[in-house]
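Structure in, sequence out. Go:
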């Protein structure tokens, strides 16, 4: 498995403001195209959740 694609390090590094630096570093290790693909995956998941909520409300 490519370590760059796994945002779950063994121990997260968090700054004094609570920002997860390991996730930021992981994202920056991706190419712009890879970042867009990750974002598209999040958007697809959000759309599925919205549809599931609509279906459950019926």
């Amino acid at each position: 498995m490519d370590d760059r694609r796994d945002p779950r390090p063994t121990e997260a590094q968090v700054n004094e403001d609570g920002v997860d630096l390991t996730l930021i570093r992981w994202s920056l290790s991706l190419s712009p195209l890879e970042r867009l693909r990750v974002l598209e995956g999040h958007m697809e998941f959000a759309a599925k959740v919205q549809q599931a909520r609509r279906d459950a409300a019926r």
